[in-house]
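Subject: sequence -> structure tokens, single chain

Hey, anyone have a minute? Need the predicted structure for the following. Not urgent.
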Amino acid sequence: MTPWLHFSGGDYLIFETWMPESKGAIAGACIALVAFCILERWISAFRRQMEIQWGALALILQTQRTSTNVQYVDDKAKDPSDAIEEEPSSLPITSARVRSRQRLVPPFIPMHDIARGIFQAVQSLFSYTLMLAVMTFNASYIISIVVGLAIGEVLFGRFGRLNGGRV
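Reply:
Had a minute. Here:
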């Protein structure tokens, strides 16, 4: 391994069997790295999109749960604006205390959270694989990775964004 930036071949790329030596093999490796980077950006955009959907579903679920645990401050008044949530504690319920309480952490939903963990594992695998390619110090690989990530971001960067801001 050459410990400085170079354009020559002979470096192992990810696997022992993938060692491009000719100019054509290096070009093929660079094309594969660009495609790999575009795929990584697509997975990132897909995850952002799923996070938005999971957040909306969690909010709906939380709203449904709180609407079923409602008691009225006055039995005569059945106006929903007078309703407060029941609390399991034995302390007296005050409407100001209950109305000001908001859930800071979304509920655990196995279907969402297991999928989120899988997405994170796949993204980590992609990131470490790209890091190993950069660690070869082959400038063609590094340029290909930067270009591939840029192309992927141009193609998929807008997906999974709320109102133009980051999620």
